[in-house]
Amino acid sequence: MAKTFAGARLRRLREERGVSQVELARLLAISASYLNQIEHDSRPLTVPVLMRITETFGVDAAFFAGQDTARLLADLREALLTGAPRARLSVADLREVAESMPEVAEAVIALHRRFRQVDEQLSAVTGDRAAELVASPHEQVRDFVYRHRNYFPGLDEAAEALAGRVRVRQGEVRAALSRHLGQRHGVRVVTTQGELSHAATTGELHHYEPGTRTLHLSIHLRPGQQAFRMATQIALLEFQELLDEIVALGELPSGQARSLARIGLAHYFAAALVLPYRVFHEAAERLRYDIELLADRFAVGYETICHRLSTLQRPGARGVPFSFVRVDRAGNVSKRQSATGFHFSRAGGTCPLWNVYEAFGSPGRVLTQVAAMPDGQRYLWIARTVSRSRGGYGGPGKTFAVGLGCEIRHAGRLVYSAGVDLDEVSAATPIGPGCKTCDRPLCPQRAAPPIGRALHVDENRSTFVPYPVGDPQG
């Protein structure tokens, strides 16, 4: 079992509560010198001491967990090496900052992101219009959700309570939600023949008319999708203050980003209403996280199940902590959320050795992969394509690959681990966060040289590796 060193977090918590070292040592029934050693990471936190600390301060044990260090370290390294590529920064030094002073690391990362936004806005003003695509409101919202580890307890609890009141039951979800919209909000739900309306050319799936209090749903929506749209409308009508309160905490810089965040939170609420936490969590554990069986059980799509699985982090009833990603054939990431330490790079694309891209070669088939990151952390990834169409012959459609991954220590709880040797380290596929921030110098699939490393250029020799590198720049 890994030792837990959390001196900086314990010291900050103690100082925030105005408790002296001597007083806290007395409350924890340990000596002041022992507490001093814990706060300076000379001694690890033992389980009995950790339990007494959580009782004393009323915090969850996860407050002291170090599972996000890998992600924080990767973000910090990306920020510092991108901003100052010639600086001499060892991985060991950065890891010490990420582990001992996470708030400092997060502040540095936040400053770097603000620098990027200003730099991109300046580029846009001076003529580099492509930069506008990088600093998008969508990216700001993704970072907002990422910081919350894709878990919003207030929304989850409110949705679960409402599901109990309106009696959301399997096979009766649409009827229950439609009835609630009518009785509580005077909203009429109608199905629209899209081919006879404006929706035929715009691809509109739903729209709400506040004046007539009518919610129009496209005939092309499947039953589960119709229920999801109704649940989203309930969130926007009934829980406006809660949505606004969470958005305000995000400190999003633009009005458009705040609007997008509000919609995203309404979608989160909708998933939590259609798939109430305890019912869904119990089914997921019982079915060993079999995504397709869960999709059949709750009559929703594969991607909806994956997204909901990535949100099950309620204290006392935690599911497997997943990372969730959706990509297209060109490698564009349109969705990414993570409850784990997995790092999604912001500098360049993702890794082509990842099985998420292999899924496009086997449409509709579930693929598994044990993947190892450069820091040695291993993950079990499940990937499959999902396709959508507006309906009708020749109608345009869209195809994505959806990936769901968890740390290898949780993989045994998944049905997808059957027949997979989870203990064989050498069998894992070496992947990275993205070529520009990846530490694997011998990767033949590399598409760009790593940040902070000088290329080894020799006109008298060639290598199978496309970007041979030398020592770190300094």
TrEMBL record:
Keyword DNA-binding belongs to the record: yes
Keywords linked to the UniProt accession: DNA-binding, Transcription, Transcription regulation
Pfam families given in the database record: HTH_31, Peptidase_M78, ScfRs
UniProt KW Repeat keyword: no
Every HTH cro/C1-type domain range: 10-64
InterPro entries, sorted: Cro/C1-type_HTH, HTH_RamB, IrrE_HExxH, Lambda_DNA-bd_dom_sf, ScfR_C, TransReg_Diox_bact_type
Classification via CDD domains: HTH_XRE
SMART domains reported for this sequence: HTH_XRE
PANTHER family for the chain: HTH-TYPE TRANSCRIPTIONAL REGULATOR, HTH-TYPE TRANSCRIPTIONAL REGULATOR SUTR
Similarity comment text for this entry: Belongs to the short-chain fatty acyl-CoA assimilation regulator (ScfR) family.
Protein name as it appears in the record: HTH cro/C1-type domain-containing protein
Organism field: Kutzneria viridogrisea
